[in-house]
Write a structure and sequence with these properties.
By secondary structure, this protein is α+β, with helices and mostly antiparallel strands. The protein has 24 helices and twelve strands.
């Protein structure tokens, strides 16, 4: 290797800075001009004489346009409706599944109903229509309390009031009212409690006809199903008619006719607009709004109904003064009358006579509507005048025709306060009113009215009977002893004749109660009821024949088919003519000269006997004419003593008042076996025989006639408010 090459290699191994390739000559250099430099100073740059590039002209920026309100509205709508397709889709899916669920629920509860082929309107429970001898209505009994009425036979105000307050879109909906339901639910939510149900009249009818009164979801669904069925098969008029005849109006009244009778004493055809409002108002809560318990609440509710009728156009604005109307002012007196005691007796007897009712029946009774009303008025007046000061609170009356037909019966002061029938179900000591059976037994053993006995202190073992006035009169006739009601003579006759024989005589005359055969029997210490005691006097009025009391003459279907017809009783003589004549002489003298003077009635021959039990607990008067036998009792339910009321005081006076009213238009008729009666003659009152017809039984003519006759009969006008209350009931 040459030295030159080695030298080159040696130099190449020395470190040497890298030489970058250049594209210009060594003399040329690249420099940044002053114009291109970023100057930190604010001094203006000098223009360079040299330019390397051509400068492009600047573009002017376009001004930004302000967005209009329409743009933002449109943009908002786009954002809002952007999810609409999804909402529609999923909403449709949810609706479909909701429908499937609803159909499933309806189908499930529909399977629990009977087959639709068997659906039919159930028959109304049978009604018992009870009428008097003149065919005037006494009462209706049964679950419905009255005969079903056609819609055209009702007062037009009744359906108007019910629709206005219960279902104002009744004629527009198909059985279910979505608007009414939504309104009711919204009010319930706002009030945080269940205030409205939202049920239509059709739904309510479906519930009443087919379902039990339970609050469950399933029952509500079934109610809707049945409501749709009713709407599909019956007209609106039929549905409304069925509803008004089946709905409950409180106080035992089902159906509008029963409610009108119960609350206003009239047919539903005669109901006024105010009364219709009261009836419609009861439907919300019958037990709460019944005017019998809450008359003020019932009236307020009725005014709400009247306002609804005005709002719906049934009542013209200004035609009535709603604030001044008091449609329930008389309704608190409902069910207080004596006719309900009679209706109770009828219902007990009807089923024993014909068994199960085949349908609506009509029961014709022996009751005289005039005598029933007169008795109620006179007895109420007597208690109002003398009740407090004489410490007596109850009264009972039985009036019989000579054959035993019950013409009038009062079971107590007020049926609404107490339904216990004191004329039939209460047994009390008759006191001296039992003595006629003792005297009759003595006559049958050969004694006569002029037979002499000694009124003196007597003792039978430890028992020492005394007279009421604790005085003794020595020798007296049997006639005098009965007139003065001497206990010593009654005790002697009982011992002589034997208590068993006297008990037999009483049973033969009509006493059915078991009697204690002891020495005190003749003084009336064994308890009997007023009906049997009064009927035991009937032989004295009818010629000596036993008279079994009866109330029902016939039972027929509503169409007139006879189900029961009473046959005449077999004639059984209870008193022979000799004894009958003597007994009527002595019983007549009781009213002329004895303890029964206060019961004396002019013109009509009558006989009777007073009765007072121990410690003045019971006071009675039982008497008869040839037309009527009547017994009256005064006392207290708790058996507390009165303030010395005797049979010859208040009972005798009340008996006189009632019998005077009963005989106003009757001809004078002598007692059986009596000579011509010559006592004082009462001036004839020119009033014709009254037999009210069916068409005026609820009218003013009947009430006016009753007032006239009752006031004339008792010869002193009772408190007008009492009579008006009773006669206008």
């Amino acid at each position: 290797m040459s030295s030159k090459l080695i030298g080159i290699m040696a130099r190449s191994t020395k470190p040497k800075s890298r030489v970058e390739p250049r594209f210009v000559s060594a003399k040329e250099t690249v420099r940044v001009s002053a114009k291109d430099r970023v100057s930190q100073s604010k001094a203006p740059l000098k223009k360079s004489t040299k330019t390397t590039h051509a400068k492009k002209p600047k573009k002017k920026k376009k001004p930004v346009k302000k967005k209009s309100d329409g743009f933002w509205l449109w943009r908002g709508l786009r954002l809002m409706f952007r999810p609409l397709p999804k909402v529609l889709y999923w909403g449709s899916v949810a609706t479909l599944w909701g429908l499937i669920l609803v159909v499933g629920i309806f189908g499930y509860y529909a399977t629990k109903l009977p087959s639709a082929n068997t659906w039919a309107i159930p028959e109304r429970p049978p009604n018992i229509k009870i009428v008097a001898i003149d065919n005037s209505l006494i009462s209706n009994r049964g679950l419905t309390g009255g005969k079903a009425l056609r819609l055209e036979d009702m007062s037009p105000y009744i359906p108007q009031a019910v629709i206005a307050i219960e279902d104002r879109r009744f004629h527009a909906h198909f059985g279910f009212d979505p608007i009414g339901f939504a309104r009711a639910m919204s009010r319930n939510i706002l009030s945080l409690r269940l205030r409205q149900g939202g049920s239509t009249i059709t739904q309510q009818l479906a519930k009443n006809l087919f379902l039990k009164p339970e609050r469950t979801f399933g029952r509500k669904v079934q109610e809707l199903i049945l409501a749709f069925w009713l709407e599909a098969n019956y007209s609106k008029a039929d549905i409304l008619e069925l509803y008004l005849n089946r709905v409950y109006f409180g106080a035992g009244a089902t159906g509008v006719n029963a409610a009108a009778r119960r609350y206003f004493g009239k047919s539903a055809k005669q109901v006024t607009i105010g009364e219709a409002a009261l009836l419609a108002g009861l439907l919300k809560a019958p037990s709460r709004y019944t005017p019998a318990k809450n008359p003020e609440l019932a009236q307020r509710r009725a005014r709400v109904v009247l306002q609804a009728m005005q709002r719906e156009g049934y009542v013209k604005p200004g035609s009535i003064n709603i604030e001044d109307m008091k449609p329930g002012e008389h309704a608190q007196h409902f069910r207080s009358g004596p006719e309900h005691f009679i209706a109770d007796m009828v219902v007990k007897e009807v089923r024993s006579l014909i068994g199960d009712l085949p349908g609506d029946v009509v029961v014709k009774t022996t009751i005289d509507s005039y005598l029933l009303t007169a008795a109620h008025a006179i007895l109420t007046d007597a208690l109002n005048k003398h009740g407090k000061k004489r410490n007596v609170s109850q009264v009972a009356l039985v009036a019989l025709a000579p054959d035993g037909a019950i013409r009038s019966l009062i079971g107590g002061r007020n049926y609404g306060d107490s339904q216990f029938n004191r004329a039939v179900d209460a047994k009390r000591q008759p006191g001296s009113a039992f003595k006629p059976f003792v005297w009759l037994t003595a006559l049958e053993r050969g004694k006569e009215p002029n037979s002499i006995y000694v009124d003196e202190p007597v003792a039978f073992g430890k028992w020492r009977p005394q007279n009421y006035d604790q005085e003794y009169r020595g020798e007296v006739t049997l006639d005098e002893a009965l007139s003065l009601s001497l206990n010593t003579i009654a005790a002697k006759l009982t011992v002589e004749a034997g208590s068993k024989n006297i008990a037999y005589t009483a049973a033969r005359m009509g006493i059915k109660s078991k009697l204690k055969t002891n020495a005190s029997l003749g003084l009336g210490t064994s308890e009997v009821n007023l009906l049997e005691l009064t009927s035991a006097y009937a032989p004295f009025a009818n010629g000596g024949l036993r008279a079994r009391p009866y109330l029902i003459q016939s039972i027929t279907t509503d169409a007139g088919k006879i189900l029961f017809q009473r046959n005449k009783d077999v004639v059984v003589r209870a008193v022979k003519k000799r004894e009958l004549r003597m007994m009527n002489v002595m019983l007549q003298n009781v009213m002329l000269n004895g303890t029964g003077k206060a019961a004396f009635i002019k013109k009509h021959p009558a006989g009777g006997k007073t009765g007072t039990s121990q410690n003045f607990r019971d006071a009675l008067f039982i008497g008869h004419t040839a037309h009527l036998i009547t017994g009256i009792w005064f006392g207290n339910d708790d058996n507390s003593p009165t303030k010395k009321i005797t049979g010859g005081s208040l009972p005798a006076k009340t008996w006189r008042d009632f019998m005077g009213a009963a005989h106003l238009s009757l001809k004078v008729k002598q007692l059986p076996g009596q000579p011509i009666y010559t006592a004082g003659i009462m001036k004839e009152i020119p009033i014709p025989t009254f037999r009210p017809s069916q068409q005026n039984i609820d009218g003013a003519n009947l009430r006016d006639d009753l007032k006239t006759r009752v006031n004339s009969a008792i010869q002193k006008k009772p408190k007008k408010s009492i009579l008006d209350m009773i006669l206008n009931r």
